[in-house]
Amino acid sequence: QTTKDREELKKKIAAYHERDIANAIVESDKTVRKCIYDILDIADIAEIFSYIEEEPGKYLEEMPIEQAAKVVSNMDSDDAMDLFEELNEEDKYKLLKRLDKEAKEDVQKLLSYEEDQIGSCMTNNYIVVRNDVTIREAMSTLVKQAGEHDNIQTLYVIDENGIFAGAIDLKDLIIAREHDNLQDIISSSYPYVYEHEKISECMEILTDYEEDSIPVLTQDKKIAGILTSSDIVELVDDEMGDDYAKLAGLTEEEDLNEPTIVSMKKRLPWLIALLFLGMAVSSVVGMFESIVAVLPIVICFQSLVLDMAGNVGTQSLAVTIRVLMDENLSGKKKIALLFKEMKIGFLNGASLAIMALVFLGVYIHLFKHYAWISSFLISGCVGISLIVAMVISSLVGTIIPMFFHKINIDPAVASGPLITTINDLVAVITYYGLSGLVLIQLFHI
Amino acid sequence: QTTKDREELKKKIAAYHERDIANAIVESDKTVRKCIYDILDIADIAEIFSYIEEEPGKYLEEMPIEQAAKVVSNMDSDDAMDLFEELNEEDKYKLLKRLDKEAKEDVQKLLSYEEDQIGSCMTNNYIVVRNDVTIREAMSTLVKQAGEHDNIQTLYVIDENGIFAGAIDLKDLIIAREHDNLQDIISSSYPYVYEHEKISECMEILTDYEEDSIPVLTQDKKIAGILTSSDIVELVDDEMGDDYAKLAGLTEEEDLNEPTIVSMKKRLPWLIALLFLGMAVSSVVGMFESIVAVLPIVICFQSLVLDMAGNVGTQSLAVTIRVLMDENLSGKKKIALLFKEMKIGFLNGASLAIMALVFLGVYIHLFKHYAWISSFLISGCVGISLIVAMVISSLVGTIIPMFFHKINIDPAVASGPLITTINDLVAVITYYGLSGLVLIQLFHI
Question: Which tens digits make up the pLDDT trace of A65-77?
Answer without folding.
Answer: 889 899 999 888 8
